[in-house]
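anyone else get weird line breaks when pasting these?? whatever heres mine. first is seq + tokens for prot A
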Amino acid sequence: MDNKFKLNPKIQAAFIAAYGFNQEQKIWLKHYTDAAIAHDAKLFMRLGDESIQRWGMLRCIELHNAAAYLLSQEDLAWGTAVMDVATELNKLAKE
């Protein structure tokens, strides 16, 4: 993984702390970022769906935004593309 785009770990921690995640959400964030780094689309989408069900759309967006501080630009772009596809699939399923 290319780390040249990643933030300093102290800055990452400060951004993450500002969201006020509980312990379960912090663990979920770790799994979410691991799935993005591994480019495991199935797990990544499942975690995204589960976060909406558990905590609502706003918290899901906050968790996704927090993940952005932990990922390289390449992994972030991959994750964003996967979530865009998942959103479109959900729209089609509702039609």
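and prot B, same format (seq, then tokens)
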Amino acid sequence: MSRPRRACLAAIAWAALALAPVPALAAPPGPGDLARSIETARKGIADYERTLSAYDVEMRALIANDPAAARRREEIRILKQHYVREIEGLKNRITDDYRKIQEFKARGVQ
């Protein structure tokens, strides 16, 4: 491309960006959004708990004195700690969402 053509394309692109509408700010979540968030968190907790139980089964199936099994047990412990922290975070989110829903109900917002 020639230099003037690039400059023209750059100017057109800049003008298009400058004239583009500014995205609107999102509204704060309402009771319906919070209820969906609670359901999503419950499903996430159920998935994480299934994963934890699968790791428990795998941990019990490992041979006690095998070095590879010892490494895998350590990996599983770390993974389980991660999932437990995630579950705690989701439970906290559910509690916060319920509190917010109660605040909406106290103000009369449905």
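btw re prot B: The two ends are 59 Å apart (CA to CA). Residues 45 and 88 are 9 Å apart (CA to CA).
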